Amino acid sequence: MTRAELIVFLRQHRLAVQASVSPTGAPQAAVVGFAVSDDLEFIFDTDVSSRKIPNLRANEKIALVIGWDEECTVQVDGVADEPKGEELSRIQKIYFDCFPDGPSRLAWPGITYIRVRPTWIRYSDFREGTRQIVEWRADDLRSKIAHGLRQAKQGQLLDGEAVFGDLLRPANLL
Q1: Model pTM?
Q2: CATH classification of 3-138, choosing from 2.30.30.100, 3.40.50.2300, 1.10.3720.10, 2.30.110.10?
Q3: pLDDT for the residue numbered 81
Q4: pLDDT band for position 141 (50/70/90)?
């Protein structure tokens, strides 16, 4: 499983279970429609009256589970925020490309957008004959992407393999 294959897998799914913790320590989970950027940012919209918003405003840590069908899943631990200004416009475009009905929700009072930046990702495939588990950690996700983006801006990007190296070929854990 390469990083590119991970993004393809994620984009084949529209729903995730997100989990957060309330200010009193109680667990909370909800199904959300999500989009994923090329930089592995997960984006979803929600109403500020939902339980997840006060949870995430008090504690930015979040978990997502995607693709529970066919014995293949992606688990994500990350940090959530509510972008504003140009960043909000940028992530809304990503979200609206995935959910064409999204702009109609802009008229809803209290609509907000959450961005999740992963600190850990685990892909698990438990199907007969294809069993594999692959993990990416925060240092790999951040440093190699940032390095690759810097090279791309400087015109030094030849191909993804040359820039992202091990990030594209994480260790198989099984």
Answers
A1: 0.81
A2: 2.30.110.10
A3: 97
A4: confident
